[in-house]
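Quick review question:
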């Protein structure tokens, strides 16, 4: 199964893609995560990407596409994949068409104020655990500390309110047209509710 998951920043794409890819036994590809890996390793690509990401702007298509093509060619993608945060522009979608035929596209819907609340509160751990200090059911038990491994939690550099607001503008302007582009295979999912409730809605739609 070849899927893609769309939606504004903070809608829960990464959270849901992780769960659903595991359930279906397919790869989870997040271009945002790939960029953050490069930034952490201080590669040339990472240094370039950071100048865009920190402003809430998109990384140029050519750079993103080159990185994506390397990832999609890896063996774990042979069984199918869920794309999270890619494509984000019409040229990216056109390029994807030449690589793979997507079966279904999911669009998670969430209001701007809920996005800001979720993203200003998002914290993650190196071990993969995720938390949210603004959402009661996602709070860590001890301030700033991972319940699972005890490490200090991390806040993303682009999760500052001013950057979040720009990411929302960029989403509407540059990614918005893809909702129409994929209209024949796309279904909307309400992003409000528990993580499990949202997963159930997606599984029903699939
Ligand atoms: P990317 O990493 O893709 O960021 P994004 O699209 O802004 O989305 P987020 O990862 O912030 O949110 P999410 O929808 O995954 O939500 P999450 O599950 O974490 O991209 C970052 C940047 O990289 C871009 O701005 C751009 O610069 C660049 N980039 C990436 N791809 C690119 C591309 N293709 N082309 C060009 N540039 C690209 O959830 C958010 C929070 O809410 C978490 O704390 C979570 O725990 C919590 N939460 C999740 N579900 C629920 C729920 N049901 N109820 C309450 N809280 C919840
Ligand atoms: Mg994400
Ligand atoms: Zn941890």
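Suggested answer, residue by residue:
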């Amino acid at each position: 199964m070849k899927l893609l998951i769309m939606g504004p920043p903070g809608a829960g794409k990464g959270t849901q893609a992780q769960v659903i890819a595991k359930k279906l036994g397919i790869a989870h590809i997040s271009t945002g995560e790939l960029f953050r890996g490069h930034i952490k390793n201080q590669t040339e690509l990472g240094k370039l990407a950071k100048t865009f990401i920190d402003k809430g702007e998109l990384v140029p298509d050519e750079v993103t596409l080159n990185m994506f093509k390397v990832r999609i060619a890896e063996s774990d993608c042979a069984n199918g994949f869920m794309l999270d945060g890619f494509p984000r522009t019409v040229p990216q979608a056109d390029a994807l068409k030449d690589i793979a035929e997507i079966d279904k596209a999911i669009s998670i819907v969430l209001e701007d104020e809920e996005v800001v609340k979720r993203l200003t509160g998002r914290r993650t751990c190196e071990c993969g655990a995720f938390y949210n200090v603004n959402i009661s059911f996602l709070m860590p038990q001890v301030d700033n500390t991972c319940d699972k491994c005890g490490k200090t939690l991390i806040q993303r550099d682009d999760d500052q309110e001013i950057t979040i607001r720009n990411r929302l503008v960029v989403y509407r302007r540059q990614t918005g047209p893809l909702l129409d582009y994929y209209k024949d295979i796309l279904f909307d999912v309400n992003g409000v509710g528990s993580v499990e409730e949202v997963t159930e809605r997606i599984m029903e739609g699939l």
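Why it works: The mean pLDDT is 97. The radius of gyration is 16 Å.
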